[in-house]
Design a protein that fits this description.
The chain has 15 helices and 23 strands. The protein has 459 residues and is an alpha+beta fold. The strands form 7 sheets. Strands 3-9-10-16-13-12-11 form a 7-stranded mixed sheet, with helices on both faces. A hairpin with a 2-residue loop joins strand 12 and strand 13. Helix 2 packs across helix 11 and helix 3 packs across helix 10. The longest helix is centred in the N-terminal third of the chain and has 20 residues. It is globular.
Length: 459
């Protein structure tokens, strides 16, 4: 997608009700976005689909909804208090702030700048004669560490409040509840615990729309297994994540790739990690991470909380800290990838174009749009529309502009079926059903619509 098309793509999402700029009437807030009516529907559908595939339909896995606010000792034990920092530097002229490793990565993407000390990064910025992107100054502060966790105060009496943090990831709530889940569910290994929830990181974002935000939502699974089965489950979840992207979300195989991390890229807790990357409009970016975390997290919390977190096998009488496989994906990035993949500009026979979001039926915000051919029959068409809603099928009612313009409008937001109620419908109790992708139309009795729309083989 070229720059012009990308701008048109983002404009479509913002003007049609998918994504709005956060706090817009007050001038906005950097990298803050709100999901409009269509975006909220799409996000809910993606989350429900993930939950169904990774939790509900899997006999090994259970759901959880842990708290955003947790005891501050959690983040000390996990290493976030001491290690969760970004190397930043400021322009002394315009006071703009930049992330050192990312700036240098633009010059040399083959070097792992995250491994360099702040002093080394400062020197490299000078050696490479980095220029401020805002004001073109070359006068910068030294590189310093800035903490990425949002902090807040707990307590109602000023002066006696304690500092706590908004969680920067959802994983720790799962680790804290590992023992609670396997005991209450009476489950043997392997055991997966998954949740969907908000996380917060006070970091500089690159401005690539909703790719990276300070407030974001994760769909995360921590899968606990015995050491001998680690490689099997690691490969299983790489394959499962790829299948979810292509088979459930309809993402083209040519737009994704799986890349194993080099040893110097691995996080301190990781024994091995693979990223499924998507070719976004700005280039390849991480979409879904699958990590083998060892038993680092359970060991850390066991040591710091002085709590026995061992799994006790009642048959073998063996006690162990299980190994952990973590497939983690962000809702927002998954939405952006899905929308980018679905966006098409098609040439029609009359040399005109149509924009169509080819979203799979199961996640399209609206499955059906009902069109009265004339406002004179809007009442009867609206009665059909309310029937469809009562069938628990997401639908919209569109009666303004010509029927052709209404088709195009619904195509551009991904609505899968169009139902046109015309004057003949009053006599023969039939309507015209139009397919979004093929634009083919068929005539169908009204009393057969429900069964037709619910057929799996027509989507």
């Amino acid at each position: 997608m070229n720059k012009k098309n990308n701008e048109e793509f983002i404009t479509l999402l913002q003007t049609s009700g998918f994504i709005f700029k956060g706090s817009q009437i007050y001038g906005g807030l950097s990298n803050s976005w709100d999901y409009g009516p269509l975006g909220a529907l799409l996000a809910r559908n993606i989350k429900d689909l993930w939950w169904s595939n990774f939790i509900k339909k899997d006999p090994n896995n259970f759901g959880l909804d842990s708290a955003i606010l947790m005891n501050s000792k959690v983040w000390k034990a996990s290493g976030h208090v001491d290690n969760f920092n970004d190397p930043l530097f400021d322009c002394k002229n315009c006071h703009s702030r930049f992330r050192a490793d990312k700036i240098l990565e633009e010059l040399d993407p083959n070097t792992n700048w995250e491994k360099f000390s702040n002093q080394e990064l400062t020197q490299k910025i000078k050696d490479n004669k980095i220029v401020c992107k805002k004001c073109k100054s070359v006068d910068f502060t030294d590189v310093r560490n800035f903490h990425l966790m949002f902090s807040t105060k707990m307590g109602i009496i000023e002066g006696s409040q304690s500092e706590i943090f908004l969680r920067p990831e959802t994983a720790q709530g799962i680790f804290l509840n590992f023992k609670n889940v396997y005991r209450s569910m009476r489950k043997k290994l392997p055991l997966g615990i998954g949740q969907i929830g908000k996380a917060f990181r006070n970091e500089i974002t690159p401005g690539n729309f909703i790719f990276r935000m300070r407030e974001f939502e994760q769909m995360e699974l921590e899968f606990f297994c015995v050491k001998n089965d680690v490689d099997k489950w690691y490969d299983y979840y790489i394959n499962k994540a790829n299948a979810f992207l292509t088979e459930e979300l309809g993402i083209s195989k040519e737009k994704i790739r799986t890349r194993a991390h080099e040893e110097d890229e691995l996080a301190h807790y990781s024994k091995k990690t693979s990223d499924i990357e998507f070719n976004f409009n700005f280039g390849w970016g991480e979409l879904w991470g699958i990590a083998h975390r060892g038993n680092f997290d359970l060991q850390q919390h066991q040591n710091n909380a002085d709590e026995d977190l061992y799994y006790h096998d009642q048959i073998t009488n063996e006690k162990m800290l299980p190994e952990i496989i973590e497939p983690s994906v962000g809702v927002d990035r998954l939405m952006l990838a899905t929308l980018t993949n679905a966006y098409n500009v098609e040439k029609l026979d009359n040399d005109k174009e149509r924009i169509v979001l080819k979203l799979p039926y199961k996640i399209a915000p609206y499955k059906v749009a009902v069109f009265p051919l004339s406002k004179k029959i809007s009442k009867q068409a609206f009665e059909l529309f309310t029937k469809i809603l009562n069938w628990d099928i997401s639908a919209t009612f569109d009666e303004t502009a010509s029927i052709g313009k209404r088709y195009r409008r619904q195509d551009s937001i991904g609505t899968f079926w169009g139902i046109t109620f015309d004057f003949d419908s009053l006599e023969d109790n039939q309507v015209t059903l139009r397919n979004r992708d093929t634009m083919k139309q068929i005539r169908i009795p009204i009393n057969e619509i429900k069964n037709y729309l619910m057929k799996d083989d027509i989507h």
